[in-house]
Amino acid sequence: MKIxxxxxxxxxxxxVSQAMRVLEVLKQDGLKMEFEYGLLGGGAVDxxxxxxxxxxxxxxxxxxxxxxxxxxxxxxxxxxxxxxPERGLLGIRKxxxxxxxxxxxxxxxxxxxxxxxxxxxxxxxxxxxxRELVGDIYFGEPRGIEERGGERVGYNTMVYSESEIRRIAxxxxxxxxxxxxxxxxxxxxxxxxxxxxxxxxxxxxxKDYQDVELSHMLVDxxxxxxxxNPKQFDVMVTGNMFGDIxxxxxxxxxxxxxxxxxxxxxxxxxxxxxxxxxSAPDIAGxxxxxxxxxxxxxxxMLRYSFGQEEQAxxxxxxxxxxxxQGYRTGDIYEPGTNKVSTTEMGDAVLAALQ
Length: 354
Ligand code: NAI
Ligand code: MG
Hints:
354 residues, alpha/beta, Isopropylmalate Dehydrogenase, 2 domains, two-stranded antiparallel sheet, 12 helices, 40% helix, binds 1,4-dihydronicotinamide adenine dinucleotide, binds magnesium ion, metal-binding, EC 1.1.1.85
């Protein structure tokens, strides 16, 4: 298993180094992994003049998976758009063709008070949103703003092909098989033809997954149900735009952004794994950041890119254990718990792994 490690900027190097300590333990225990480090983002701009240098592109292409910290920061905010660190991130996602964005939203019982929703609504929450990442109205043509009949008109095109829907539907059903075998597909078929096709194709793909229960929901209702009764869901699958909105809504059911991992996968389960948060310049270099989202992203990497379910669970159970033991970085701290630094949280996870 060849893994390309891209720590990035801000808190990126601090949190990635804790995830690497975890992976090194699994390596010592016999898991065959090779790591290669590369530059991405602002650090890459400083050293090479570009946010996604060719050397990194080569590493990313050769690797079986990529573990990423975060990129960006105020230092690079005044650069022209093409040189900004965020361009590096879009570049690598696009180049790898990672069309399936998986975002689990799990509320750990010990963090029940971190959510803004009532504990009885969110306690025990464990859902995953699968968002199609490279199609839909974000990429559809034609698009633009033009003059028509003496006023400006803006337009975009919502478009999905059968093959695009088919491949994301498969990811959803496969994911559900590893969980509670329930998929809810979200669309707006009562108004939008492209999502009528979405519903038809998802229903067709379901024929190969009769052991998984499929339901359909209109997106406005789905937005409502996510805050009314989120525990009714297991896997939700939807297009790029609806998924953008619903995955942000779902992530906040759990409280802290410092806890949320993500995976973006291509057709062969090669993937890019990164925490949902950014480079947190306000706390960078202070040994304060929560490394758990990145550690959990490494667990997703083992599960989805390498089929190492047991090793993934080993990491996730270690994270649950440190939370149960009361270890908290600043973002999830509550009076009565044990406030720790980034490296101390890493120490605690390593101890829990043993
Ligand atoms: P951010 O996610 O970096 O920070 C938002 C807030 O959450 C800050 O108060 C930060 O301290 C806190 N936070 C984030 N991660 C944390 C962690 N692991 N532990 C504890 N607290 C944490 O978002 P913001 O401030 O909007 O963006 C900062 C920079 O990051 C910008 O340059 C932005 O472009 C970039 N960014 C990069 C992303 C990526 O690499 N995928 C995603 C989002 C933003
Ligand atoms: Mg968004």
